[in-house]
Write a structure and sequence with these properties.
The structure is a single chain. The chain is an alpha/beta fold and about 280 residues long. The chain folds into two domains: about 30 residues, no CATH class; about 180 residues, 3-Layer(aba) Sandwich (Rossmann fold). It contains eleven helices and nine strands. The strands form two sheets. A seven-stranded mixed β-sheet has the order 5-4-3-6-7-9-8, sandwiched between helices. α9 links the parallel β6 and β7. It is globular. It is an enzyme of class 2 (transferase). Catalyzes the transfer of a methyl group onto N-acetylserotonin, producing melatonin (N-acetyl-5-methoxytryptamine). InterPro entries: COMT-like, COMT_C, COMT_dimerisation, SAM-dependent_MTases_sf, WH-like_DNA-bd_sf.
């Protein structure tokens, strides 16, 4: 125990005070802010999700590099569609929702303020999960309403455990955004959606969004983005390696994202880097 605690002190996760024969350990401000579950900015659930679901798959990194393809077929009892595995139980779904909300507590406000969205009264958050971005949206833009669009099982849990009835400017639409129509809106948010899918699937989704979008409306995309010369940033390369194991998608450069948007009819493409690891892109219909 002492070795573990001293290692945490070296990592600045704990502080130590030595008094005579007593050694007292306690959280640093950093740990209280980001690791204590009671903190509004706690990353506990995000880290647990990665620890339980993703990090163990680095065992297959060498195979992924040698074979040049994802390794999902090697996981025990893994279905063809990765989301069938991730959403295989209510418990798993809630873990994902808690993880996404935790991540959004750090970057959500930066994403929603990268551009002035006050002239978009009707907003649709595609794959909105636990509603963290939706809550940021209604707090920042009092004249907007937002619809969380997600799978029926996700929407059911979001209504019960994540979004209170008092938050009346947040609505829900329970659909599969690949199989079902998306509702009409002035702005569509795709936060960390495109990186999970290959170019063909991204084109399919963006085409559907463009068709449903009101004239003059647009799409707001939040993604980890590679530098154009692929020199970094390091978090983009790390995310790219994670995708090798589970997903069909990839981390894209600005020009690759712009080509997807242009090919599906969007114009006036703008990109901004936030204080977090995410870039935000606004494109108009």
């Amino acid at each position: 125990m002492e070795k573990l605690l001293d290692a945490c002190v070296a990592l600045k996760l704990l502080k130590v005070e030595r008094k005579n024969t007593q050694v007292l350990y306690g959280n640093t401000d950093l740990s209280n802010l980001y690791l204590a579950k009671s903190s509004p900015k706690s990353q506990y659930y995000y880290m647990m999700f990665f620890s339980e679901s993703l990090y163990s798959k680095f065992h297959y990194l060498a195979d992924a590099v040698r074979e040049g393809k994802w390794q999902r077929e090697k996981f025990d009892n893994s279905p063809k569609n990765i989301f069938e595995e991730l959403y295989s139980s209510k418990e798993n779904i809630k873990k994902i929702m808690l993880a996404m909300n935790a991540s959004c507590s750090l970057c959500g406000r930066d994403v929603m303020t990268a551009f002035d969205l006050s002239h978009f009264p009707l907003i649709c958050d595609v794959g909105g999960c636990g509603g963290a971005l939706a809550k940021e949206c209604i707090s920042l833009y009092p004249n907007s309403t937002i619809t969380i669009l997600d799978l029926p099982e996700v929407v059911k849990i979001a209504k019960k455990d994540f979004v209170s009835a008092e938050e009346h400017r947040i609505n829900f639409c329970a659909v599969d955004f690949f199989k079902d129509p998306v509702p009409e809106a002035d702005l569509y948010i795709l936060a960390r959606i495109l990186l999970d899918w290959d170019d063909e699937s991204c084109m399919e989704l963006l085409t559907k969004v463009h068709k449903a979008c009101k004239p003059g409306g647009g799409v707001l995309i939040s993604e980890i983005v590679l530098n154009e010369d692929r020199s970094g940033p390091i978090e983009a390369h790390f995310a790219s390696m994670l995708l090798l194991f589970y997903f069909e998608g990839k981390i894209r450069t600005p020009s690759e994202l712009s080509r997807l948007l242009s090919a599906t009819g969007f114009k006036e493409i703008q990109m901004k880097k936030t204080q977090s690891q995410y870039n935000v892109i606004l494109a108009r219909k």
